[in-house]
Each structure stands twice: as C-alpha cells, then as structure tokens.
NAD(P)/FAD-dependent oxidoreductase (Agromyces binzhouensis), 304 residues
Amino acid sequence: MNEFDVVIIGGGAAGLTAAVVLLRARRTVAVVDGGAPRNAPATAMHGFLSRDGMAPRELIAVGRGEVEQYGGVLIDDTVTNAAPGFHVHLAGGRELGARKLLVATGLTDDVPDIPGIHERWGRDVLHCPYCHGHEVRGEPLGVLGGNAEAVQHALLIRQWSDDVTLFTHTDDPSDAHRTLLAARGIRLIEGVVARIVVRDDRVRGIELADGRIVTRAAVFVRPRFVPNSDLLFQLGCRVDGNGWVEHDALGRTSVPGVRVAGNAADPRAQVITAAGQGSAAAIAINAELIEDDLEHALSPRFDG
C-alpha cells in the first residue's frame, strides 16, 4: 500500500489547486480522479482571471501538468470506499494510505428529462448566467420552469437580455411571482414543454405539447444539485437536512482529517471559487499535519 500525507479525491479545479499548494509545502500527495468533470460539456469557462475563454479540459490538463511537475501522483481511477485511518480503495484494486483526505468530488446536475436538454447541456442549454450569460447577451432567451427558483432565475437572467420568456412547464407561478415577472418585462408562457428545438447544431426554440414553437436562441434551466457525497457518507461525515456535508469555512467536516472543497462543499462554487476553496483547504490541511508532526515529536518515546 502506498502511503501519502494527503490523498485528494477529485481532480478538478479544487483538487488540483489543493495538490499544488500541498506539494509546494513538501507534502506527498496523490490525486485520484475518475475523469468525468461536471463542466465537461462546456466549450469554455469564464470569470477566471487570466483564463477567461479557456476550455475546461485545457485547464485540467495544465493543472495536471503542474501537479506532476511538483512530484504529485495522478491516478486515473475511482474510489470505491475509504475507511478511517485512512485506507482508500480504488476500483482498479489499488489501496492508498493517507494521513489526511480532501474530498473534491463535485456534484451532479439533475435536469428535466425533456428531449434536447441533455444533448445541448453546457452549449446553448445553460444553467449559470455568470458563466454563459455574456455570450448570449441581447438574444431571445428562455427559462424553463415556473417554481420559485425558476422565477428567481428568470429575474436574474433578465439582466443579460430584454427578451426573456419563462416557460412554466408543469408549474403554476404564484400571483406574487407573476407580478415580479411582469415588472421586469418577462413574458410568461404556460403549458407543458415537449422538447428543445434544435436545427443546424443550434437551439432554435422551445416546442410546447400543444404544438406551439417559440423561437429562442438559448434556454436556461436551473437544475437540482445532487452532491457526489457517497464517500463522505461512508466516512461518517455529518450532513444537513438537504444531504450536503456539514463543514466550516476551510472545508473541515465532522470527521477529523477529512475536508471538502469545490462543488462537493458548495453547489454555487464556480471554477475560480472552487480553486480558491482548494487552496484554503490545502493550507489548513498542512497546518494540521504540522500539529500532528509536533505532537509526535514531543510524545514520550519508549525503547525496547
């Protein structure tokens, strides 16, 4: 079994940033990554200073190169389970030992099962206006869903276009929400959505179950965020009422030696935010390791 100061589970912006910080602090680090980043469908990321417009996979490739440059171990595999101690078991049969764990496994976007959404996700069926709103500014935009969260999403997206239509689908907005939408000049179309209309590799509109087609250039969908937290459950970390792991500002969980960063900790974290969380968690982990080293150095030693 290979022994490391820190095993990082998840090789996105949070995990790779944490690895570089720890490696520069002369820690031994392994990063285990399954190769399925949440933002893989996106052609570019935005809002990351000096990296605006870079493809997500390009950022990961550069980050992996930096980890290797500092002597980190990259393992393309998935973790099947982990036990306090810490013993990390991989699907490929390998076992890793670690003094500390950082879990940066991200989340999964649960979106409506409507034809066209999965196929165009991250391209012109979008979630985050701060990530993609500028690229579709001024275009006729659609927002899917009429519940409270979708209404708030539509009110936000109105910042990027004067032509925003909210499609209620199976929801019925309250009178108060209808008033807010009207105040912002957001059109409301009721009726079940049948599919996203795609022609020539572009979203062209939304088709309703009654056959109506409303022209749109892009569609925003607010997904349900599902944390990839099975490993954290296995380790016994406390979670809140919504299933998210409880942690402090530096990612410390209820299990000593286990921290979280990125979307596994914060569903609102963008790439740059996740990287910052990874850096902060790494610095905290190194401080813990120093405390452990001091405790070991000061503990009484008994010979034979």
